[in-house]
Amino acid sequence: MELRIDLTRRRGGTSAARAAAARPPASPMVSYASVLAAAQRIRGSIYRTPVLTSELVDLASGVQCHFKAEHLQRTGSFKMRGASNAVLSLPSAQAKHGFVAHSAGNHGAALAAAAQGRGVPCTIVVPSDTPAAKVQNITRHGAAVVLCEPTQQARVQTAEAEAARMGGAHIVPPYDDPAVIAGQGTIAIELLEELPQLDAILVPVSGGGMLAGIAVAARALKPSVRVIAVEPEGKGLGRAMAEGVRVRDEAQANRLLPTIADAIRTVALGPRCWELARAHVDPSVLSVSDEMLRAALRVSLLEMKQAVEPAGAIALAALLSPAWSRLAAQAEAQGAPLRSVAAISCGGNADIGQLARYCAEGHG
Ligand SMILES: Cc1ncc(COP(=O)(O)O)c(C=O)c1O
């Protein structure tokens, strides 16, 4: 994203050039057919995760809630779906050179495991200040880790250098990539197969790969399902969608959100995810504060017996919020009640000390 903006400036920074740079590069868009193909491709590489319920959460939210337990997915997050699809989509002649990503988080671990599954090399570029536990979560899946300066530019440049050094390895972006988006969309296929009665799906959002993929698949399978984004407070996706402006300015694009949900701090959606979200995602966006996240982490651990990372509790937090009650009441008044809702419990790679602290602090 940042690179795209730099290129625009070098070209002179006219508004036309900026608009062209903001458009996704010409490459296949994500269709339901590509999500379906992804589901078949990755079937042997991922778990079909269970759907969990809680009487207490149903009572508190006023709806039947179904939690898609992607924190129990291989490598601890839904990222295994997109990474597996990206790795398995590539023909052998290209895949043999291996894969590269710059991500200290869930995408890095997932790509490592997916490449290991295909028996090809993988290098993950991580900032030098990455905690040892996160580095271990990558190396245990057989990937090499290369440290770089903790800047976006250094991450991108180091990844490109590594890919070249490996003889032409394929760089897999964390969200704004057709194969990754299609892989994440397979969550919706599983959900709607199992729960055809769903009225809405609540999807945590950062760069928007999961949101875009789920929205494409849900729209095709059941057009009446509302796909509702759940964001950390301050992201402003609802306003961005209402105004049709993906990135307000460069400073906004480079900022990270100050949320305890460390996996979802990206402010702007990727250009491709943005286009898909605008076409298929509900205009209502639910925003969640850190206080609500702490309370939800506590409910998740103590009531649902599920240890999730903060991002993994954000959809639960949204369901327990007054904003949800208002949205549900509005839907009821409009004659399209939300009775059955799915929420993606997207990740479980929590730091044990932090999780204990957040749960202890989380009342409400
Ligand atoms: C646990 C978890 N949840 C949600 C997200 C958001 O995914 P996306 O960037 O596709 O919006 C991420 C992204 O890294 C994540 O790791």
Characterise the protein shown here:
There is one protein chain. This protein has 364 residues and is an alpha/beta fold. It folds into two domains: 33-77 and 177-361, Rossmann fold (3-Layer(aba) Sandwich); 80-171, Rossmann fold (3-Layer(aba) Sandwich), CATH 3.40.50.1100. The chain is built from 18 helices and ten strands. The protein has helices at 2-10, 15-22, 32-42, 55-61, 79-89, 92-95, 106-118, 132-139, 152-165, 178-194, 209-221, 237-243, 250-254, 271-280, 290-302, 314-319, 322-333, 352-361; strands spanning 51-52, 64-69, 99-102, 122-127, 144-148, 170-171, 200-204, 226-232, 285-288, 340-345. A six-stranded mixed beta sheet has the order 1-2-10-7-8-9. Strands 5-4-3-6 form a four-stranded parallel beta sheet, sandwiched between helices. Strand 7, helix 11 and strand 8 (226-232) form a beta-alpha-beta unit. It is globular, with a radius of gyration of 19 Å.
Oligomer: single chain
Domain module tally: 2
Number of helices: 18
Q: What is the CATH-assigned architecture of the largest domain?
A: 3-Layer(aba) Sandwich
In N-to-C order, the SSE pattern is: HHHEHEHHEHEHEHEHEHEHHHEHHHEH
Which distinct ligands sit in these coordinates?
pyridoxal-5'-phosphate
The residue ranges in which pLDDT falls below 50 over 5 or more consecutive positions are 1-27
Helix content: 40-55%
Q: What's the level 1 CATH class of the largest domain?
A: Alpha Beta
Q: How big a fraction of the residues is strand?
A: 5-15%
What is the tally of beta strands? 10
Gyration radius from CA atoms, angstroms? 19 Å
> Largest beta sheet: what is the strand line-up?
1-2-10-7-8-9
* Strand-pairing-aware structural class: alpha/beta
Q: Predict the CATH topology of the largest domain.
A: Rossmann fold
Average of the residue pLDDT scores: 90
Largest sheet entry: 6 strands, mixed
What characteristic shape results from the CA principal axes? globular
Please give the alpha-carbon distance between the first and last residues.
37 Å
